Amino acid sequence: MQAVTKDPAAQKPYLFGEFQLDPRRRLLLRGGRPVALNPKALEVLLALVERRAEVLTKDELLGAVWPDQIVEENNLTVHVSALRKALGEKCGDGRFIVTVPGRGYSFVADVSRPAAAGAFSVERHTVTHITVEEEDDDAHAPPPPPRAATTALTPASAESAEATSTRTKAATRTKAARARVACAAVAAALLSAAGITVAVRYSGARREAARFERFEVRRLTSNGQVVAAAVSPDGRFVVYAQTEDGGQGLWVKHATAGEPARVAEPKPADYWGLTFSPDGLHVYATTFERSRADPVLSKIPVHGGATERLPVVTNAAVSFSPDGRRIAYVVSSSSSGGSILWTSGPDGSDKKFVALRKDPNPFAFQGATVAWSPDGETIACAVLNNGDDGLHMSVVGYDARGRGGRPLTKRRWHVVRGLAWARGGGLLVAGSARQGAPSQVWFVSPAGDERTLTNDLNSYGGVSLARDGRTLVTVQTDTTSGIWTAPATTQGKATEYKAGDFRQEFTEVGEIPAVGWTADGSLAYLSSASGAQELWALDGARGRARQLTSEARASDFAAAPDGRYVIVSNRSGRPNLWRADADGSGMTRLTDGDGEVRPRFARDGREVFFQKGFGDVRSSVWSVPVEGGEARPLTRPHQTFPDVSPDGTRLVYSYMDASRDGAGAWRLGVASASDGAPAQSFALPPSVTNRLTRWTPDGRALVFIGTAGGVSNLWLQPLAGGPARRLTDFTTHHISAFDFAPDGRALAVVRTQRTSDAVLLKNAD
To answer: pTM for the whole thing?
Structure first.
């Protein structure tokens, strides 16, 4: 990303070795090029450099980098290790960072700071170009929302800053822009001798609008629990949902200063999308309430008043037409065998069909994946494509009057997590270019050319753009995952585990989506450490990890109890099951349907059970012989996350029970493994969002993940009946995966620390 430092005397960069650390822009450069660093690792580096030659204790660093948060000390070790790798330090080198045993860390390299070299300093982070118009739109903007009763939203300092800000200048002609480029190029040549890199703002023959070439980045929240965010049309306010005790709550704050104010109390629901109304007075919030079968769309007043529940079912954020008279949204439809793009009035009336996508190629759900173009003609949608050429996502523009669609991007995206139209043409996309790569913010021109706005190890979800085309809000997520193990206190039985019973095996930056035990008692897991999601094995005795598969691009896996095979999903770029030898070699396809995921072995190793189908509309449980053959269905639709009992006779799966008045609840079903005949059913608590379920090694109970206040624990449901009880007593971290050793002697848990905050990107031009 690119930024402008207007006052270099205020925060001049630190120079050490071949590196330059910019404290204002939170950027590390090496030879003028950005070094990819996790934001927390960069904060650790900045703290060490600012107090160079001192010994900073671990508590001091934890307090500086994770204020008001409870984190494991090992997180610091992981980020220091990442720093040393980024700085090119070898083991024991001590060129930059020295570990002081029993005390902490010290930065020992010589550090200098350049003297001011004029009235301004311009630094180039990366060259990116995001097109937005430069016209002054104040004449067409609606009046600002009334000030809240609290001064938190409209402090005097913020109002003064707004009053003194200058209006954006009108777009210059192409000829003048070219002259500016030429002058800047000459200036760059002159300044390069002094070691100064200049960012040049340019435009082509068909200049579409000003671009996000240089912008300021500001963190809007610091609690680390934000799940969704949106900016008001006038760019003055930001609304965000965050995880709290009791569920997720909604807050609003001024985009420039001040304290946040609560909009909605926390409740046991997940916020899937947020959209400001055109007048900035309401937020349209899509939530999935855990006591209902369908998501809910609510119209919530930002500055106080009654919430209105709208007669609209949608699985993502809504998008307003330019005139504010209609909304566009997508919803899954079991009766249609796919998902539908609709438009309606803002109150849900006058509903009109736009497009249908049949499974397994639905519209993308959750987040801001629907965007109505500024000219009102096109509705951009993120869609899933599951064909012979593999599984990927793309962005399609549908005619708002229902006359078909056309591709808007050239790329085969691994995931798209947000869409917004840039004024003057082009799209802003929050997405990942390939599996294992973090989601970044991109600009896609009308011609399909792509450039990244962000380029780091964070993941970005959602994009919300103000009417001025210069103020963008997104959610930035920093993820660290680790595998923890604990011995069973009673062999074969799942008894209560204390946090102190667990030992941390290792930690890495990023997601670990699956973990499992192999026949020899080793741990296998999925990791993107190699740049793609592959299967790895961990040698606990040596503390070493080795990569088992190559080009597997796995989304899940299962290890055979007899040690002969492993099963991975997604090997071909689409979700099918593949069998490999235990060492990861000799890949053989087992299934070739529309989508087969979440494999689990029968105890005898001869059969593999799996989930066929995506989402909750058509998913069901099937099985296939491990040596190959015809797959067979076992359960009716709407059943997911299968597991097989230790004796191989029963299945467990999760399903939505919507039998009463359209409302419903997730439940666990137990059925025969031979014919899928249902036998038992148990309610799942509202705290369950990840419905991964495992049998206890003795086959007498089921274990699942419950999350409250951002903290996950394992819960146990006895098959004999009675209420579920908590199995672990963790007070920090999410649990993303877990598994019991086949002999029942150990439990492995993947615990993930996610820090997610709303950030604002403000065009500096």
So the answer is: 0.72
